[in-house]
Structures are given as C-alpha cells and as structure tokens.
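User: Teach me something about this protein's shape.
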Amino acid sequence: MPEKILHSQLPAPFIFSQSSLQDYVDCNRRFQLRYIEHLQWPAVETAPVLENERRQIEGQQFHRMLHQYFLGLPIDKINAMAKNSNSQNLARWWDHFQTERFANQIVGTFHDERTTFPEQTLSAPLGGQRITAKYDLIAIKDGRATIYDWKTYHKRPRDEWMAIRLQTRVYLSLLIAAGAHLNGGQPFAPENVEMVYWYAEFPSEPSRFPYDKQHHDQDWAGLSNLLREISAKQSFPLTEDEKKCGFCPFRSYCERGIRAEAGEESETGADSDWELNLEQIQEIEF
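Assistant: First, the predicted structure itself:
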C-alpha cells in the first residue's frame, strides 16, 4: 500500500488555541495529524482505558457544575447533582470547592459583586491569523483581573511546568489584548492581571502566576512569531524527543509504538480539550 501523502496547508479559516499551539510546540507532526489531517486517534491507550475515559468525563462534569454555580444556580441543586452522580471523584472535588478557604475567597470577594465571567471566550487577530481562548472564570475587581482555571489532575504538576505551558502564556496575554470590554472599555494593565490554577485534588495548593508588561510584550511577540511560523510551514517533522511519543495517541501512525500511554501529559490534553472545541467556532466577536 503506498504511503499516505499528508497535507501541509492549514484549513481556512483556522483559529489557533492554546491546545493547538501546545501540540505544535510538542510535536509538529502531531499538530499536522490532528488539525490539518483531522485524523482519528489510532493508538489504543494502555489500561485502564475505561478509568481514563471516566476521569475525563468527570472533569467535564465538574467544569459544568462550576459554570452553573457562577451563573447563579442554587447551591442545593448542585449539591444534589454531586450526590446523585455516583462519582466519588466528583463529590470530593465539589466538597473541596465548597470547603476550601481559597475557593470561599473567590466567592466572597467576587461572586457577590457580580464581577465574575464564567466560560468567557476571547479572540483577537495575531500574526496574520486569529487566536482564541475559553476561560473557566475571569474575576474582576477595581480594575484587577484574576483568571481561574480548574484542573482535575490526579497529580499536582510543578509550577515551573505550568509556567511555560502555552495555556498560561495565551490566557494572560490574550486577556490584555481582547478583554477591555470586561473592564469598562479600558485594557487591563499587565500588572493588574494574574492567573491561578486551582487543583480540585489539591485545593489548598493553587498555582499563581502574576504578570507584568515585560512578560506580556514577550508573550505577545512570541505568539505572533509562532503563528507566522506555523502558517508558513511546508513540512511538519516528528519530534526528536521520543519521550513525548509515549503520551501521544498518534504514535502508532508514526511507527513509534502501538499503544499510547496514559499519563499526566495525557490528562493535560484531555483537560485542555474541554477548553475549546474549534469546530464549533467560526467567527468570534470581541
């Protein structure tokens, strides 16, 4: 059978997200297979497959519960949802959210003042393309904004690892570029923006990332260059770091193994997939 010829041209229109950019940085070929070829994941994950899928579904359910909470759904209804879910993980995460001092601080400081924006989508032109992100929660008070992102990892990642993830860079810089309408028409000063990852399994150990103008300028310029690089790309080679292949569902297609391992990087991908479904977004106004 002749080898399949892969396409190298981005579909138009194409809207970049932190997920697609992270795929490209991790492995050019993964980006090509997922976003240009639109291939299904051919590699079977290692056991327990059902456990991994179940945890992904629970993570999505937890995000929906918090979304409904910040939209004002009565807490007794959400309590009933957690209780009737037959999921120990979901019930535990919801209990952590209600009882943890950090989560209560979010509610007391922001929620009562109605300055929370759950499931907020922002989009902006960049590098001749367009970049977008869907935030779990943006909380604003006195011109200061805090980005909250809920994570359901079973292991707490290192702050150093989270700091260099494309999600952190995209979310912070995009809020500066496209979030003025959330602040009375005034762009946020980078020094007044912070990103916080709240880990449902480790409720008292959030990751906090303050911001400043120097980091914003570097991030925005770096992302612009990255989008231009991808747009001009004629070939998408495999990563030379084969350690990354262990967590990639396309590894069998690339002849780097038959099965994709289940691990922390795999969970990260599942969590970020909840962040945005690109096929559902054609044009986003801001």
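Now, about its shape. The two ends are 48 Å apart (CA to CA). Residues 263-286 have pLDDT under 50 and may be disordered. If you'd like, I can walk through any region in more detail.
User: That's plenty for now, thanks!
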